[in-house]
Specification:
This protein is mainly alpha-helical and 305 residues long. The chain has 13 helices and no strands. Helix 6 runs parallel beside helix 9, helix 7 runs antiparallel to helix 8 and helix 8 packs antiparallel against helix 9.
């Protein structure tokens, strides 16, 4: 926001104020960092059986056992609260941007459907945190397979974050007054969330923090994420209006940052909705395929992160 103000006003005092503001934020942040280490001993009552009982919707499969174990580990370590807050902070930043900026006067027509794909992309970080809590080496002596543990972590991710994303979209729909787009936004959000984490798990297994340094894996990950995300973003901007980009380019060339966004009628919005639904259904189908292929890719692997 400061950078945009500098470009619009081209005033030296804004530059100095921005530098001072950044320096103060850095100073306050440094003061919040503690230079000591404290080891805490926390005792809990039995958590596994109550957690397992609340997961009846998963049936009596091995995945249910592993999901219950993962939630116990998260609660025991105290990581669940930290991960939930860390997942929520980027969403609060997006909500704050929508609150501060009047997007109806921006050159790019950001709307509710433009935010939905963001939520799925944040799943990569949450999944990587799940794999970094404890070493799974001890499971090599148990009658379990790596695909079972991977699937359990994907289920844990979805249970732990889906309600946060749901609340965010509802609040954003209220803020932007776009209740009509909320059902499509929810479908896009859930489809993209499932797909991104399924793709991450399929390509990187239990070692996403190592796999990000593998050029071949990251190339496939980039292709698999950028193409559907780009399609969803373009459809969210146009809302089905194929002449949007020509009109938008002309306005930006004439008015620059003062250009006005293009408005849409209900028929154009319906066309955009069908396009986003098609992409979302394709992502759900791709997620199911990756779920099926998990055994082929990781079935013979050892437990190692």
């Amino acid at each position: 926001m400061w950078g945009l103000a500098i470009q619009r006003e081209q005033a030296v005092w804004i530059v100095l104020a921005s530098l001072f503001g950044c320096a103060m934020i850095g100073l306050v942040s440094s003061l919040l960092i503690l230079d000591d280490f404290e080891a805490k001993v926390i005792e809990h009552e039995d958590m596994f059986e109550p957690t397992y009982a609340r997961l009846k919707f998963l049936g009596k499969s091995d995945v249910r056992l592993l999901v219950a174990k993962e939630f116990v580990d998260l609660r025991r370590s105290g990581a669940l609260k930290k991960m939930t807050v860390s997942y929520s902070i980027p969403l609060l930043v997006l909500l704050g941007m929508a609150w501060l900026v009047d997007f109806a006067e921006a050159p790019i027509p950001i709307n509710l459907l433009s935010y939905a794909p963001f939520l799925g992309f944040f799943g990569f970080n949450f999944y990587s945190w799940l794999t970094a809590l404890d070493s799974p080496d001890f499971m090599n002596g148990l009658p379990l397979s790596v695909p079972q543990l991977i699937r359990a972590k994907v289920v844990v991710y979805f249970i732990a974050t889906s309600w946060i994303s749901f609340l965010f979209l509802v609040i954003m729909a209220w803020r932007l007054d776009e209740w009509g787009a909320l059902p499509i936004g929810l479908i896009v959000m859930f489809a993209n969330s499932i797909y991104i984490v399924a793709l991450t798990a399929f390509l990187m297994g239990l070692r996403p923090n190592k796999a990000i340094f593998d050029g071949a894996i990251m190339t496939w990950f980039w292709i698999g994420t950028v193409l559907p995300l780009l399609a969803l973003f373009l459809l969210s901007f146009t809302q089905g209006d194929t002449e949007f980009y020509q009109n938008w380019l002309s306005q930006v060339q004439e008015d620059g940052l003062d250009a006005q966004s293009v408005s849409f009628d209900s028929e154009q919005m319906r066309q955009g909705f069908w396009g986003m639904l098609t992409v979302s259904l394709g992502l759900i189908g791709a997620s199911g395929l990756l779920w099926k292929l998990m055994d082929r890719r990781w079935g013979k692997s050892a437990f190692d992160n």
